[in-house]
Amino acid sequence: MSSARDITRAAWPPRSVYLDYPLGHTSGRPHEPELNQQILRDALAAFENLRVPGSMAHLPYRWSDSDRWKDRVFAPSTKAEELPECAVPTGEAAATATYDDDRVERHPTPQYQTDEDAAAARVSHDGEECLVCAGIDY
Questions:
Q1: What is the number of other CB atoms lying within 10 angstroms of the CB of residue 18?
Q2: What is the pLDDT of residues 22-70, one digit of tens each?
């Protein structure tokens, strides 16, 4: 699964599923478990049906009603002169415009939505049952 279409295409995995959501939100919005589960079900179904090497399925979900969030993701500057033209305020707003960098802070350790998620991950890793992390020393 990927939220970085161009990077995924360049890596050329055998199969991939693309979700046009901000990086770090590949399985959906935080605290929306029903949506997260549906996205994962749709991704797994897509993986079962992709037959041609290098195929990429595009999931139909939208982060918001508009694509304005992309302007902010690709322009983490607080200076109007460094923003892309489409994100620069005009008219009266231009004089007082600032840009708040609201990207999610990066952490060196895994972050979980709930304490239950963290506990399940610990049990999985302690029991060496995690198929994603197989072979990784903790």
A1: 19
A2: 888 888 888 899 999 999 999 999 999 999 999 999 999 998 888 887 7
Residue 66's Cβ-count burial label (10 Å; 0-12, 13-18, 19+) is: exposed
Q: Is the pLDDT of residue 138 over 50?
A: no
Q: What are phi and psi of 66, to 5 degrees?
A: -125, 170
Residue with tokens 């992309």: 70
Please answer whether residues 46 and 57 qualify as being in contact, where contact means their C-beta atoms are separated by less than 8 angstroms: yes
Report in angstroms the alpha-carbon separations of 33 from 105, 117, 125. 21, 11, 22
* DSSP H or E segment with residue 57: strand 55-58
| Tally of CB atoms within 10 A around 123 | 11
Q: Supply the pLDDT for residue 136.
A: 54
Tokens of 87: 């994100």
Written as six digits, the tokens of 53 are 């090497």
